[in-house]
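Good morning N.,

You mentioned wanting to compare the apo and holo forms, so I went ahead and generated the holo version with magnesium ion. This is what I fed in:
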Amino acid sequence: MSGKPLRIPAGLVSAVVALLIWQIATTWGPLAGTSVPTATSTLAELWNMLFMSETWDSIWQTIQMALYGFLIAVAIAIPVGILIGLSRFAFISTKFTFDFFKVIPPIVIIPITILVFGPTLQMGVFLVVFAIVFALAVQTAYGVRDADPVLIETMRCYGMGRAKQVLFARLPAASPFIAIGIRISVSAAMIVAVVAGLVGGAPGLGHDLLLAQTNGQNTVTFAIVLILGILGLAVSRLVVFLQRRLIFWTAS
Amino acid sequence: MAIAIAVNGVSMEYKTPKGTTHVLDNVSYEVQDGHFVSIVGPSGVGKTTLLRLLTGLAQPTAGEILVRGKRISSSPDDLAVVLQDYTRSLMPWLSVEKNIALPLKNQKLTKAERKERITASLAEVGLEGAESKYPWQLSGGMQQRVSIARALAVRPSILVMDEPFASVDAQTRFDLEDLVLKVRDDFGITTLMVTHDIDEAVYLSDEIVVLQGKPAKVRDVVKVDIPFPRSQMETRNDARFADLRTHVYGMVRGLE
Ligand SMILES: Nc1ncnc2c1ncn2[C@@H]1O[C@H](COP(=O)(O)OP(=O)(O)O)[C@@H](O)[C@H]1O
Ligand SMILES: [Mg+2]
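and this is what came out, ligand included:
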């Protein structure tokens, strides 16, 4: 026999408790007989949906919008953030503009994106990029500026130029900042990818959610919400896992 | 003997929004090849400023600095530095080996040669086998040894140190002082060190440059005529050591 005691993860316990409360509330409690489906019927619906290819297509479309948007935003924001961070003048002069775009909720530009892209995957990708690129660039710029001047001067004394300073000092010094930006960006990307479907008609889970709700398919609506929750959780766990591995020196 | 470093009539002013601070005024002195020279003076007198000029990190407002007869505009090639803040001058994301290897990227070395230099420098500072450790896994004294090893690995002809032992404990400090003397003996490196510890300056140096005043001038250059090799036990109890220390202390305090 293995000596390891059986460990029940706390997260699992609270999930079961939540489901129980949901089940009780919708069977005997205040929500009984309302349009809110029971936990068991929702889980049954979810189980059914897992065997439909449409479900997986939608999940994939949502992930695609979030992922492509995220990757494009990272590819733009990090180089731009580095360049801005390297120059005091660029940092100060772009800060206002970037902060301005940062606070515009992506939902308000949906009408414009529908005009330009139509209710497509591209629209969703664009919205995701818009939602995160400014904050991520500002975050990167902050990180680059945060590099220790003593470290930079030590490198200069040893005759190491700008490129080496960026590669070996500024970028690693910025990485905890960038990691925070990325963690926030990943969640934002998922949310915006859903909103793009819910409000802007882009394909994916958001759109399915809208359809299910307008057609009065309550259990489907709730099942999709569950899928979104699980998806979001999985993604943020993955990011934290990668971050711990890549930025090992800040731990402790 | 040849002159390694010549500081000729150097003045330095900092221009800030609150006005101009005149820090150094017409500072001149020469450092002989292979000598150990300390720069002492009260806190805030401009010692670090002078080192920044010597390492090419800043340009003087007047005068010039020559390294082996050549006026410097940026950091000289064969110069290495050790700063007080060891925690801030080593990169926490690089192992000891990679930290030392970084400045070597500017030199044309084969992989084997680089490896050999790293091993040799670590051995020199008594840190054999620490290659794969990270700086934050080491004590303060050990981190400072790594900075010294990094400096030695570039095989510099000039070593510049700004209060290198100010933040380590007393015993480690003595060890590191003797380490620096050994290094000077082994490689004949011309060494310039800023310190606020006058005993340390006397113990280590061939010459002590005393900065005094606002703006700072060279108050005196004191020759330390205590023969090498020196030892912590004997040298520090030497009558000559006490005389020199009192003399330099008086000048730093503006009492002489
Ligand atoms: N970057 C700077 N800008 C303006 N003033 C400075 C700067 N660096 C140092 N100073 C001023 O120059 C004087 C000398 O500083 P420093 O060279 O650090 O002295 P020390 O190393 O001898 O303690 C101090 O009065 C300090 O405030
Ligand atoms: Mg200083």
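The CA atoms of residues 45 and 220 of chain A lie 6 Å apart.

Happy to go through it together on a call whenever suits you.

Best,
F.
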